[in-house]
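To the structural biology subgroup,

Please find below the input and predicted structure for SusD/RagB family nutrient-binding outer membrane lipoprotein, which we are adding to the shared reference set this quarter. The sequence is reproduced verbatim from the submission form. If anyone notices a discrepancy with their own records, reply to this email rather than editing the shared folder directly, so we keep one authoritative version.
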Amino acid sequence: MIRKLIILWALVFSLGSCTKDFETINVNPNAPSAVPLDYLLAQSTLFITGEGGDPGYRSWRTNFIYAAMMMQHMSSVEVGFYRGTVYTFQGDLSAAWFERAYPNSIKNLVNLIELSKKDPKQVNVLSMARILRVIEMGVLTDVYGDVPYSEAGYGALTGVFSPKYDAQKDIYADMLKELEEAGNALSASAYIPKTADLVFAGDINKWKRAANSLMLRFAMRMQKVDAAGAQAWAKKAADRGLMTGIEDSFGVKFANTGAGNNSNPNSWNMFPGGRGIVTADNIQWGKTYIEAMKTRKDPRLGVVSALKSGDKTPEKQVGLPIGTDATMLAALPAPLNARANYSRPAPNMYALENTQFVMTYTESELLKAEAIERGWVTGTAKTAYDNALKAGIKQINSYGGTLTDADAAAYLAANPYPVTGTLDAKMDAIHTEFWMSTASLLQHIESWANWRRTGYPKLTPVNYPGNETNGQIPRRLRYSQGEYGVNPGIDAANARQGADLFTTRMWWDK
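Predicted structure (tokenized):
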């Protein structure tokens, strides 16, 4: 007993004599005091695809409920929830990307950027993070217009918890600058986070080409509002080197670990073990898209679409009419009066391990073809167009297809480039394929953005009773209603951009 007391007093004395080392001796050597940057990079990469607490939440609302429906890739008779098909508003649906991106992906990317700046050896992590931030902010501004940008995600560092809304013109200028600087800084001689890089597994040259192709995307978006700036940036992107093949396509890879962030968010929404919006007949492929695939003899139809029975025979696929509610559907003759009889994404389209594409080689080549036709970039537009169509057919093999070079050649033969046609005819050919390709890879948000700029393909809107656009396809989504009364920047944005409505056009949408 005495021995125990002596030991106890010795411990008390020793603790008292080294209080100055209290923080050191209380550090758990088995727990990291800072999260490794590689982990933060992998997490941030997964987050840009549409995570946010509830797996696939913002992907479901923004990509499917609104963008896919408005672009007539998909349709739903549940018009009270899948509101994009009839152009009506619901606050939590419209604001989902806004409300989930800022506290998740944007905050994490800002944290990663600031941490990696402190170590010159982490220049590749820093550059990748800057590119990822441009991708995320690009979606935000293309969906809503003016948004918090320069101060966004810095609240914990600066104490600014109501970041200002930057003008889209200024956002675009900075995003292009970021892509150029980040691309320049990428270095094959510095540390390369191969395992944490869920896009290119550490291939620095592919990152560089992807940054340049993204630069081309944003340059072309400015075509109507700043032709000189668009031309200068498009030329710079092409001169620096664009994607060279489908292996350069920017896609986030997943490991299929179930309901967490490491499953494809689009797949999670459609997957029967997830949200199950396909197997529950919530969404089907739209009639506009299915008929276009048949008209164009698109071999992707037998890959992307199936009847509920599992039948993928292309000739049997039937798209759900756009703007059709349950009452209207019930009035149709059998078997078209039941939504279970319409085509929907095939099961291979929602495998949880599917890559989620951000930008493809197909898109890069189509934009290059347009830039060539406008005289901004050197080259042959037909060659770029041909490359794009053939690559788009082969890219679907990432989603379970088995299409061949012969399939790609046949599709190109059925949809040749109008070399002697008018500029309008050429733009129609280029951007109709853009619309087709993005639909096949579930890139509906990007398809919507490109359609708003180009007007192709020429879609026929619906004028459903009670819609908020007077029967016109929306030009943007509305801000989070929670911003009002909290962030005065939203009032400045509305004064500068226009009323917070679906019909208000953003800076580049003229």
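Summary notes: Strands lie at 74-75, 147-148, 165-166, 250-252, 284-285, 305-306, 344-345, 356-359. Residues 1-32 have pLDDT under 50 and may be disordered.

Regards,
Lab coordination
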